[in-house]
Each structure stands twice: as structure tokens, then as C-alpha cells.
Amino acid sequence: MTKRWQTIGHMLAFAVMGLFAAPTFSQQQAPLIPDSSIASLQTQLIEADQSASSARKKLAIKRLIREAQQLVEQNADAANRFVVLGVLFESQKQLLSLEDSAENRAAMLEICRALAAAPDEYAATRLDADLLLTQAELARQGADARARADALGPLVERYRDTDVEKKVIRIAMLMALELGDSRQIENLREVIAQRFAGDLEMIQFQREKLAEQVFGAPFIGSFEDAKGNRVRFPMDFFGSTTAVFFWSKDNGGLEHVKELATAWNAKRDDARGRLALVSINLDNLPDAGESILREFGVDWPALRLPSGRDNPIYQTYAMRDPTIITVSPTGYAALFLSGGNSDTNGYERWLSSALAREWTQPQFTGQLQSLFIGEFFVLDPTGEFDVTTPPEIKASTSAAPGQQEKLTRTAADVPEDKLRAIQACFIASPARYRAPLDQVRAGYEQAEALCSQAIKDYPSAPNLWIVRNRRIVALMGLWKLDTDNRYLDRAATEAQALIDTSHPAGVDALARFCLARKAMHAVDADPVTIINSLGQWPAAEHAPGPALAAAALLALEAGDRRLHEQYRRDFIDTHVNDPMLWTVSAFLLDRYHRYWLYHPPFVAGWTYGRREGHFLAIGTPEDAQRKLELELKTVEGNTVRIPDDSQGKWTIINFVPSAQTAMHISRYGSFINDRPFKDVNLIGAVLNEDAQALKAALAAKTKPDEFPTLLVPDATRTGLVQKLGILDEDARPNLVILRPDGSIAAMLSGLTMSSQHGDVLQNVIEWHDELAVDALLAKGDLEEAKRLAFAFAPLPEPAAADRKPKAQKPIAIPHLRSRAKVYMAMENWPAALADAEEAYLQINSRAGWMSMRTQELNEIESLKADILSRMKPTQPAP
After folding, report:
1. Alpha-carbon distance 586 to 563, whole Å?
2. Which of 288, 342, 370, 483 has the fewest CB atoms lying closer than 10 Å?
3. Helix, strand, or coil here: 177?
4. Read out DSSP for 386-437?
5. Residues 639-694: pLDDT tens digits?
6. Residue 319: left if φ>0, alpha if ψ -120 to 50, beta else—which one?
7. Mind listing the pLDDT tens digit for each residue in 699-756?
């Protein structure tokens, strides 16, 4: 008996697509096999394994196999027959170990085929059979290492959302490592990141198997502080970078505490609102080490960690001490796969470096804090605050802006001047994102005081819910700034009061958002259930926008990436154009935030900046259906309407703070002029109404621009900056790329434009060029596809005999791919391969430049393989 038949755990874990298409048995309502019959078989299997001799064991197993086969045959349609097939599989496996024969091997494979057709509820039962059958099929095909690695993806997909999904991913990862296939290793790491990012078991598995690398995972945990208060990561620290300091009194830990405290005290003011430091002592001290911290003059939260180094949190995230785990404002920790971050020397230098990073910059953290505090619930992006239609009323109805039913004011209401004074405490976006922290705090404190007084003075006012909502925001703002759960407790009390009193339908979304946060702090809290109670709305086809927004945000605070993406998708599909939720939409679609949302707070060497720049410049459009209708003004006062005046062309609008910065976009002129079709408009749009200043700036130019520079009237007051998510509008260009119909292909905020590498405008438009060719090929219009593809990627002109060949401009990668696919449709395989190979060389070179395998590289490799598989032997590659 060979070893490969003896141990299923050491078998090659490969899957073939043909196997996965196996037909299933009838699942009609046939009688179930009695539990007693199944239990009898399972008992016999245990007893057979304990037989005194191999002969007795073989005899008992053969008897068991006959009985199990008969039971399956008699209950061919029973839903639970797969349990019996599982017993039969284990029995046949034992028989094969005792009697290795062709007959027994064939019987084993036949059982595997039957068991592989089991539905997902029997995934654990069928898994080993799947693996064995797949190994046999790949061996029969003579599959090489690449084919075996390629089979891992379908295997993982087959077990998605089953109770053994994590086990299958681990098996696939081990096999990819054994095969040395970096492509599949990266694919599987991405699967883990998307589906099990915060799973402690999967984090530990990666740290054990993927040494000497860095990856990100949400830092998730519920702790008790020295005073007995419950603290939850990442929720309580979401919006600011957190340094979690694991230390013990041994290993020289006290000296490290002293050095870090000294460095912190020197940087305390600069770190406020941007960087928090949290202590986790490992010695099970009665006060969690708080008294020691206070002796060194620091007020860091002191959290308890039961069992110290034996605690799963320590073993997953820290692994050694003293160590600092840096957690990003979005809750992701930078984890070193070979162990913990042991660089705990030079704390002053470390703090200076941390405060200079992208993830600690005030505007970045300010936007996150504003959003997660819930300010968008009480601010109106479309205009001034109206006491008869406050933002909550507008957000709770599907009526068009300006057509919502107004509140009827009475003498018993909170007076209008009181409401306006409270509203004035909150700073509208995007000014809020860069407002000084002291100003933000003062606004919250003033709002809290005014709201408290209004509630005291008008306890029975019909519109008191307006006051309560703003008090909730102010208290959650103070909670977020101070990480003091007493503010959250008070906010939750106010939220419950709002819900318990009369209020218009739908205006309690903020209160429910707050109460869900409070519920998630409970020791036995189930965040998924709590979040789903917000996001699921059985009484309507879709949940209201504020409810979906709240669910998406809370999922991030719980560290649940999969749940966030679920609610993000639902929100974008149904509410992305709701004016009251523009600030949420802009955040969910912003490339810069999408990049840093799941990225660990770690950079080292030149590759990290290159990778960020690559992601921010990719040609993929935003995943939303949004349209921009905009009126701009010339210096003469004439109106230009977008998209009405776009002449059916692409339109790139560069929003800039002044006429001088509008010159920035002149560099895009060459790309536009080189296009075979004059199909792109370029517009400079100054975010003010100073026509005289613009006229003077244009007159001062020695060479006139090839594009118009226009004025944007009322950009902030009309909500344009909020709708598009224009950031750093006072300092940096912000660009929007519009398709000919006025739909938004991509919005590129100032944060994105400051970090992207390459030409994102060109990438986006050329991505659509390729998409157009793909669409024509899909519907069989080869002639039109050829016309477009060869216009975008013209063939070299024949060289004249009396002069040198004319140099050809480089062809963009999307255009090379398009021409290759057209050649494939023409069955000109050598030409298709030549274009695919040229695209591959460019893509592979860029991947090497970043030291990162990209999805684009995987796709071009697949395209090349497809072409090679279709080529005839008489058509050698050029």
C-alpha cells in the first residue's frame, strides 16, 4: 500500500472544473434514513478500527461496506444519504490500506464520485473525497505544476460559504507553497483578506506559513480597562492611528515604558486627534499597570489582558514583547509574518515618523472622524439649514429635493433661533476635515451645552428630536476625540429618549446608529447581528439610505470587511445619488480612501509608494452610476452646461482653487491631441466666482491655453464639493472624468491626485476604449471592432525606400490588448500573440518595478495562454 493512499491529509488538494459540474441526486421529499441506522454504521466503523488483527478488521470492514452500500441503494433519494456515503468512504479507505488492489481503488473512486455530488450542507463530509478524486484526475491527465496550481482556485470557490471554507483555503495555501506558485499564494492571501481578515485562526496561520512578509489585518478585540469599562477595537479608536503597546515588568519592560512615556510627552500636543497610545500590560496587575503609567506622566488607557502571553490576542498580534502594534485609523494593524514588531528602540524617532505618515495627517483623520461621528446625519450638503425640512426629514423620504413635506411648526416647538444656534456649532464638509481640533471640540461642547439647555427648557416640544439628534452627534464627537465611553453612554441615553418619544418616521436612524454602537460594547455582543438589525429592512424593498450607511460604517468599526462590502454595495446601488448622503457616497467611492481602508500602516523602501501610486492611477472606473449636471460661467458671464454643451465627447474637468493652479492641466493636452478621434474636452474650473481675477490671470499668459478656464458658482453652497468628494479644494487640483452622456467615470480627489503615479486620466479613458472593442466583439460586429482597434493601435507605416522608417509612438496596453483580441476574432493567431506578448512585457516590467504581481499580469498571462492553445503547429509564434 503506497503512502499516497494512506493519508488523505497529505494528498494533493486540487480541483478540476469537470468534477465541480457533477450532477446532483434528486432532492425530493424522500424519507430520511433513520438516525439509528446511521449511528449503527458509525459504531461498526469504530469497532472495526479497534479489531485485534488485520484479518478481523478486513472482515468487519467488508461487512460494513456491504451494509452501507445496501442502505444507500435502498434510500437513493434520501437527503441524508451523504452521511452514509461518508461512512462508506472512510470504510473503503481503511480497506484500501489493508488490501491495495485495482478493484478497491476503483471502488474508492466510485464512492468519491457519488460523495462529491453532495450539497454544501455536507461539505465537511465530501471534502476528503473531493481531494482524492481530484488527485486521481490530475494524475490521469499528467498535469504539471502550473495546472495543479490553477486547480486551487476552483477548489476554494467550490467551498465558499461552507463550514469548511477556512480549512480548504489553508489546504490550498499549503499546496501553493509546496508548488512555489507565487501567483496562487497572492490570490489566496487576497481571499483571506476579503473573507477572513479578522479571523484569529487565519491570521495565525499566515504568520506561521508566510515568513518575512508584512500584511494587514484588523485589530479586533474587546477589553476591559483599569476602571472596568468595556473598550472595543477597532470601534473606539476608529478615525485616529492607535499604537497598542504590549509590555511586561520583566524583559526590561519598565525601562521601555519610561522611554516611550518621555517621547510621548514631548509629542503629546502634535499627536492629539491623530495618534493615540494604548497600554496592554501582560502581568495581570490589579490595575492593568495604570499606576505605573501615571507615575511616568502619561494618561494612556490601560487595558487588561487576561492570561497575559497565553491570551489569543497576544499570540495572534504581538507574539513578543515589549512591542508596538500600529493600528491605522481604519482599524488595520501592520503584522510582520515572521513575528511581532520588535523595533522598540528610538521611541522619539518612531513617534516623529508616525506623525509624518499619510495615515496620521489631520485632513485624512478629520474626514474619517466626521463621518463616523455621524455628522452627515445632521448636515445638509445642498444648502442652508431649514428648520421645517432638516436633513433627517430630507434623508428619510424618496421625494425629490425641494418637494419634501415640511414640518408644521407650533408654538410649543423649540424656537427657530435656538435650533439655528445649535446647528451653527457644526462645521460643514469639506472645511470640517481640515478644521483645527480645538475648534471642532469647542463646537461639540457648545452644541452639547445648548442642546442640554433646550431639552430642559422645552421637554415636550414636538420637534425636540431635532435637538436630541444634534446632542447625540456632539456627544459622539467628544467620545471619538477623547476615547471616553462616558460620552457614548450619554449619547445612547439621549438616543433611547428620542426613540421612546414621538418623532417623524425615519428620523431616528442616527439614534439607532448610536444604540447599535452601545450594544456592540457588551461582553457577549454579536456585531454581525447588531449591524444586520440596522441594515436589513424587511418592510421595504431596500433599506433607507441612512440605515444602510450606518450599517456599512459600523461594519468597518467591527473590523468586518466582508459585511462592510456587502452594505457598501447595497448603499451604492440604491442611494449613491441621495443628496443628504453625498458625503458618505464620496467617501465610499474615493480612491484614496479605498486604498487605505484595508492597507496596513506600514511603508518601507521604494515599492510601497509605487504600489499606492499604481492603485490610484488604474483605469478601472468607479463602481457607481452617478451623473453630473453642472453649470459653469465664462469670464464674460456666459453659461456652459455639462453635459449639454459637451458635444457628445468625454469631458475632463479640473477643479482648482485659483486661476493660477488651472495651468496644471496643460500637460494633459498631448494625450488628448494624440487620440485618433477628437473626443475629449478639457476644462479648467476655478472654485470661485472672481471673474476679474481669472481674466487677469488668463491675460498674463504668454501662450494661450488650448482649453477653456471657467468659473464654478456656488460650489460649496450648492453641494458640488460634497457630491464629488472634492478634498483639498483650497490647495490641490481635483478632477472628474465624465463620459459623453455626463455619467461619472471617475472622480479623483486632491488626495488621490497627490499620490497617483502615471496618467490616471489616460488610463481611465483607454480602459473604456478597450471596453468598447470588447462590446463590439461580443455582439459579433468584427468590422466596427477592427475600425476602433486599429485606430487606437495603428500598424506601422511601410518604410519608404529613400528614408528611414518613421518612429511609431508607443501603443498603450489597453489598445494592444484590444488589437490582440481583434486578431483572435480574425484567427490571426501569430499577430494576436505578438500584441499580447508586447502587452505582457510592459505589464510584467511594471509589476517588477513595484515588486508586486498585479491582477493585470494574471489577465495578460491568461490571454497569452488562450492564444497559444488555439494556434496551429503551422503558425509559429513570431
Report:
1. 19
2. 342
3. helix
4. -TTS-HHHHHT--SPTT-SPPP---TTSPPHHHHHHHHTTSPPTTGGGGS-H
5. 999 999 999 999 999 998 876 655 556 666 678 888 999 999 999 898 888 888 88
6. left
7. 887 787 788 889 998 877 778 989 999 987 667 789 999 999 999 999 999 889 888 8
What's the whole-model pTM score?
0.88
Asked whether 152 and 175 are in contact (CB, 8 A), the reply is yes
Residue 412 has pLDDT above 80, yes or no: yes
Query: Could you tell me the pLDDT band of residue 265, with boundaries at 50, 70 and 90?
Result: very high
For 78-112, write each residue's pLDDT tens digit. 888 999 998 898 888 888 888 888 898 888 899 89
Give CA–CA dist 506/549, Å, rounded: 13
Q: Which helix (H) or strand (E) covers residue 241, if one does?
A: strand 241-247
Measured between alpha carbons, how far is 120 from 333 in angstroms, rounded to an integer?
34
**In 10 A of CB 345, how many CB atoms?**
9
Phi and psi angles of residue 848, each rounded to the nearest 5 degrees, phi first: -65, -35
Whether residue 812 contacts residue 766, with contact meaning beta carbons closer than 8 Å, is answered with yes
The length of the chain in residues reads 878
What pLDDT shows up at residue 49?
82
DSSP state of 799: P
Assess contact for 818 and 770: CB atoms under 8 A: yes
Residue 476 to residues 228, 455, 585, 774, Cα–Cα distance (Å): 20, 18, 21, 49
DSSP string computed for 339-361: B-----S-HHHHHHHHHTSGGG-
Q: Which three cell numbers stand for residue 830?
A: 501569430
* Pick from 120, 143, 28, 42: nearest CA to 78: 28
User: Where does residue 446 rank: exposed (0-12), middle (13-18), buried (19+ CB within 10 A)?
Assistant: middle
Beta strands 630-633; 650-656: pairing state:
unpaired
Distances (CA, A) of 846 to 620, 852, 853, 857: 17, 9, 9, 9
What cell numbers appear for 348 in the block? 522619539
Residues 418, 454 contacting (CB under 8 angstroms):
yes
Torsion angle (degrees, nearest 10) of CA 828, 833, 838, 840: 140
Residue 778: which H helix or E strand, with range?
helix 760-778
